Input
Amino acid sequence: MFIASKLFAKHHITGIFSERQGGISPAPFDSLNLGLNLGDTDENVQHNLNQLCTAAQLPIPHRSRQVHGTSHLLCEGEGLQHSHQADILITRTAESAVAVRTADCLPILLIDKQARVAAAVHAGWRGTVQNIAAIAIQKMQEYGAKPEHILACLGPCIAASCFEVGLDTANALSHSHPQAQQYIYYKDNKARVDIQAINALQLQSSSLKINNIESIKCCTSCLPERFFSYRRDGIYSGRQLAIVALPMSL
Ligand SMILES: [Zn+2]
Output
């Protein structure tokens, strides 16, 4: 039903990335679809969300309208679907879990346990071009987090082997970090891009420790049994959810 971050678990924190099995949605959203307004019913999505949160022992998370921008939303109280547009969701309380939806884009979970600040980030190629990972760290710092204490887990996304982009996109991504070029592979007027690796670079440049960055290597496009993939399935693709919550304070 989900992959839990091993790095977070070592620090007694729950950070998870859902897979597609274990829900009740019919094809083509079978079965753990967590995306609203795709053609699946709201009731199915709510049921799936409840099942996932129960299994992971997490509160229902806050969710936003994701628009491939870099705005953030500070979440408080009980989790809900906001109409607010944001691609970075931040929480400072244990009862307010935060989540982002993906189906090929990269979900990033961040947490500073000492400062009690956590964030969920939606990083597609547009977000990556805009350095969204670094912007999220900057926002967390404004809420008291210290980069050297922040743990990051980069979840399942489309891998370089499957993520072909045009040269304009490749060019924009190559400027997103001084070393981004090494993760862009050119061939025949096309390029393949490792957005997970580029986001890891952006986090390192934001002073996160290498040992505090975990990358889950699962290509969403290559694994139809486990993941929804927009590139593979188009508009008939469900959505995964990545969720993080602060631990209850003692
Ligand atoms: Zn693949």
About this structure: The longest strand covers residues 106-112. The pocket of zinc ion is lined by residues 159, 161-162, 219, 221-222 (CB under 6 Å). The chain has one domain: 2-159+215-245. The first helix runs from residue 6 to 10.
